[in-house]
Every structure is written in C-alpha cells, then in structure tokens.
Amino acid sequence: MASLNLQLCVDGKLTQGWTSQTPISVGRQDQGEPETGHFSGATGNRAIVASLDHREIPRRYFELTVDSHGKPLARNVNPRLDLMIQGLPALRPGASIPILSSLTIVITPSVHLRVATESGAEIVRTLGGRGLHPDAASLASLIANPLPLKKGPGWDVATAADTLELLQQVLPVIRESATSDSFFQAGAIAALRIADLDRALVFLFSEGQRICRAQAYRDRLSNSEEHLKSAYTSAPAQPSHSRAPLHAPNISDSIIANAQHAASTTLYEPGGDTGALGQSVQHLHQAICAPILDKLGQVIGVLYGDRWTGESAKRGLDIEAKLVEILAGAIAAGLARQAEERQRSSMELFFSDVVAKHIVADAQLLEPKEEQVTLMFCDVRGFSSISQHLGASRTIRWMQDVFTMISRCVEEHAGVVVNYVGDEVFAMWGAPEPRGDHAACALRAAQQIMRLIPEVALEWQDTLNQPLRIGIGIHSGLAAVGNTGSKTKFQYGAFGNAVNLASRLQSATKHFGVPCMVSKATVSQCETAFPLRELATIEVQGIDEPIAVMQLADRESENWGALCRDYESALSDYRQGRFAEATRVLGDILKEHPEDEPSMRLLSLSVAQLRQPSREFNAVDKLASK
Hints:
Number of strands: 26
Structural class: alpha+beta
Strand content: 25-35%
Distance between the termini: 80 Å
C-alpha cells in the first residue's frame, strides 16, 4: 500500500486535488458516487475523473496500485482502450508502468490526472469531506467532535496547553459571529495566529466575482492583547493590519479554485514541479484555503491564508487546517444568522415570531399537511358595549393589554398564536412544532389566562363599565396545517372540522355560563389530572356528531370536588330520564353554589321535562346558534 497525490486538471487548470491510499480504481462516475473526485466505498478507493454522461470513459479505466516490492505503479485494466500518458508511449490493455516520481495521464484532451508520490511533487491535497456546515460552528460541536490530536511526523504541538491556545483563537470568532459582522476580520486575525500565516483573507463569491471582506497581515498586526480585542470588536474601513505589504506575492487563484470546486479545505506544501498551479505558488511556503458554506452546503466563499517569509515550515498543516476550517465554519454561521434574521424580519410581517422562526428553518411548513393538534379560541365578552364606552383609541389600548396577556400565556406553554380576529384570539398547539403533550399544554395555558384576567380587569377597573369576562373553547383533532391564507398574503394556521368545533365550543360557553369548555377528545389525551367537570353532550350548528364537553376550572378549590360529583350525579339522572331525582340534587347544589350557571341550566331542562314530558326525549343538548 502506498500514498499517492492526485490532481485533476481541466483545460490546464487544477480543479481538485487529494491524497489517497492504493489501490485506487480510476474511471467514470458510477451510481452513488460524486461526479468527480475521491470516493471511498464498499469496493475500495476510487478516483472519479468524469461524470456519468461521459460514456467514452470506462467506469474502470485504470488502477493505481503497488508492485511486489511495494513500489507504486499504474495499470491499464480496460480490455479495449489504450491509456495515454503525457510524454510516454500509450499503455496497452493489461500493461503497467511504475510511478517513479510523477506522471500525467490524459483522460481526454481537456482532462488530465496528475499522479505523484508524496516525495515527488507539490502536496496540494484536501482534508477530506466537505467544509464545516454553518450549524456545526459552535463550542458544543467542538466538544462533540474533538480534533484528531495525534502525534505524527513533524507535528510538534502535542500538549493540551498548546491546543488550548489554538482553540482560544477560534472561540472569539464563534462568539463574534453571533453578535455582529466583525466576525470577518476576527476570522482573518485568528487564522494568522492559528496557522502562523503571513496573511489571511476572507473572500465571498458573488456572480462569478471574488469579493474581499477582510484581510490581515502578520507584519501589520500588533502583538498587544488590546489591539487584538479592538480588532475583534470594531473593523475600521482600512485598519493598519489590513494593508498589504509591498513584497506580498499574488494570491493563488488555483488553490482557491480547488477549495471552491472540492468544497473541502485545501492545503499546499511545496516540493517538486509547481507548474500545474501557476506562477503564484512559486513564492509560497504553505497555504490553507477553507470553504465557507451556506445552509444548503454550497460554497459561498473561502478563508484563505499563506506563508512566504522565513524558512519553509517542516511540520504538517493538518491540525492548523482543521482549526482554520472551524474558523470558516464560524464565518459561515455568522452569514447564516444574518440571512436568517433578514428572512425572519420579512416573515414576521406575516407570521408571529415563533412561527417565523420555524418557517425560516423549514419552508415546507407552509405546505398544507394533516397534523394532530389542539386548538383554542379565546373571546372577550361584552366587547361591543365596552368599546362604545371606551372609544376607539382606548379600546385599542385595552385590547392590546388583554391580547398581550393571552398571547404570553399561549407562548409560555409552547403554543403559537395563529391570529387575532376582532375580539378573539386563535391559538394552536402541536404545530409547527409537534409535541405529544399538546393537549395538556393548551389546558395549562387556559388556566393561566383565567387566573390572570382579574389582574387585567383590576388595571382597567376605573375605566370599564362592566366586569371583564372571557370565553375559551378547546378541542383536539386532525387538522390541515400550513398556509391558510392566499398565495399573496400568507397566514399560517389550521383548517378543518377540528377548528370549527373549537370555535363552537367557545361560543357554547355563553350557553353554559362557564369561562372555559373543553372537548372530551382533548381531555382523553392528557396524562395529568386537571380540575374538570363533565357538563353535557352537545350538538352544535354545522357539526352533526354529538360531542361530550367538560368545564375546565382555573384551579381546584376546596369545594370543587363535591360540586363536580353532585353535578355529574344529577347529569346521569337527567340522561336516564330520572328528572325528579335530578331536580332534587340540583336544588341542593344551588343552595351551596347559587351562582353555578351549569346547575341552573340543567335544573331548568329537568323541570321542563317534569312539566311537559317529551315522548322523544334526547339528552343531547342541541345548541341553536353558533
């Protein structure tokens, strides 16, 4: 087994470079492989030099392997085609040729693969894998994915203290990326120190152009901690450390192109012929170029650094390159945050901030799909008369206080406010973030709303001309969730029978004189106990199926349990036609609880049946209005 350096050149320009262990099968892309580049699969190492549509190139064209003495060689494994090698006779099928230092294989007139031993050519290689995704640039990711700190030839940073010093240069950039766009300059400065570079630059790509967002040079950078601190926190238009020295060589376009094309961190260490990379590398000792990725994994820029002063460094670049890659990831995270904030700001014109956050993360949320959710409608009673009394401007301030309190209760219990409709708040649990306890969360939010309404009423007691009351209806079921608005005016919410039923339950609270009614479908999904009383089985307008409904209390008072037992006993008597027994029990309840409207209502229904019995009695309570 031998290690070989491979460089893929198209039209004379280096597009990819990597290092791989033999044996290496070289040829056209196969199913499941990248279009070009290195691939390690079940069949071993592969070098893909052309995409699937280049059928003139075999999938298994030639092989890079070793002879019986362990010396590298190239073997033509195709039974029909000759293998063309630059400056040498064609290699017949089945024939092989040793790789003494390097050789260039002509795949097509425009595509060449340069193969070299590690000692025989410049080392332009990648770290392998794609650059760091923006979501991975965090302290947590460094802990979860520790750096491969292994001693190797020439590597002299072996102690924890040295490693910590390097990491201390990375972490400020991660911090800066969360606060301002100074992360560009912070990344360039940190790269200088991490890899002992002479210069470091941040480039972003836009419409085929390379835009420099930050640059730093070692001989322009003060060693004082205060200067470094100011560089992190403020980026003047032309700081002293960002002016290029007169003797600085040109930046290597080919190394940047390699990192951009491979989407992988590229390293350059010289040795041998550098002609394939162009004149710019002739004066370089080392270079590192890490790609900056967007959320889709596309290369949108690079963090580039190189050295040209002093003696050529003898230690390996892998650890420094990995840290520079993390810096590039931190820059990518900063750009991603800026993009998300811009998108979220525009989204919040249409959605609540909670919903906007989820839609920014997953635009598919706007596509309608069925979800199990819990829905709540909360209505302010007596709105018309109160608004007439307050006037328009004070009504708006009053409703803002009420809606703010209700909204906070919803969001504190993992719900989202879908909409405000007149004097009513529509909220939902279970979407856009699915959760198994959505029903219980909705009930806890409703309890908190009922407990806080008196506080809002107290603030407005000198202004309102009547008590502040609300009606809450809650139901759980399957609903279509997504954009319920138009194509031009988005509205994230829910649609379907479950929504209609929750709205009807809110209206039904008026008939029963309770602040909150909950369907039994919601209660059945709650694992924890709540202060509930079964009220009736009702049939609401527009929905044919009868629904068992319950009253939710804001808290379990001292006599709540006895009230529930007695009422539910009377309700059972009523359902079974024992109207006299129901009347007696309800009369006793009203002696203790004279203001209990559900008992008064059921007593009225029971007395009506005693006075004028119905031959077709049905205990299902039909509500005539919405």
